[in-house]
Amino acid sequence: MEACGRRVAAWSQSLASPGKQQVASWSSTTAIDAGATATTATTPPYSKPGPTLMTATKPRPKSILSLDLGKRRIGLAGCDPLGITVSPLPPLQRKSFDRDLKALQRHCTSRKVEGLVVGLPLDSKGLPTDQARHYERYGQRLARALKLPLALVNEHSSSWAAAERYNLQGDRSGQLDSAAAALLLEQWLREGPELKPVHVAAHPVSQVNSDSGA
């Protein structure tokens, strides 16, 4: 994987027709080393993972749907089965769980998704927040409904890193959410953890890979 350049695109904005949701798209022009970290020297520092956190192993690449959860939107990104190309997808405006699920099912079917990656907002020490616990439960509920294995990754500062990388400060269209989901997926491809069925008691927040590269 490190030897392969993963084509991650530069962000471009396409305007939707009046009354329709704005759609974010990428153009695959920029090659990024798959082994490089997603952070830059300007990323704000935060503490190393605590002693209770799981040591992640690099997962086997496969078609994945990555979710950056939010109160109003869910940022989405996917990768090809070989984990070479990471692509942000149009963000999902959150509604009821059932309607969100139907929209995600369409992505999973069309992309032949084999697993979900969900970002959790751990604190600066890699410890769970109330919001992280809520997102964990939501991710598990989605994974059960979609009958897909799940991996949880630390999304601490992922939105900040995405805004810096793609110049999306102040974005309210949802592009930033999907850019953050793409960074989470890059992180998962480098660091794991491996996907696991949700019925296996292996997804407490204390076992999330907290060595966030985003």
Automatic annotation (TrEMBL):
InterPro entries per record: RNaseH-like_sf, YqgF, YqgF/RNaseH-like_dom, YqgF/RNaseH-like_dom_sf
Keyword Nuclease: yes
YqgF/RNase H-like domain: residues covered: 62-162
CDD domains named among the record's database cross-references: YqgF
GO BP term (any one): rRNA 5'-end processing
Signal peptide: none
GO annotation, cellular component aspect: cytosol
Coiled coil: none
EC number: 3.1.-.-
GO molecular function: endonuclease activity; hydrolase activity, acting on ester bonds
Annotated localization: Cytoplasm
Sorted UniProt keywords: Cytoplasm, Endonuclease, Hydrolase, Nuclease, Ribosome biogenesis
Start and end residues of each stretch annotated as Disordered: 35-59
Family: Belongs to the YqgF HJR family.
Function: Could be a nuclease involved in processing of the 5'-end of pre-16S rRNA.
Official protein name in the record: Putative pre-16S rRNA nuclease
Organism whose genome encodes this protein: Prochlorococcus marinus (strain MIT 9303)
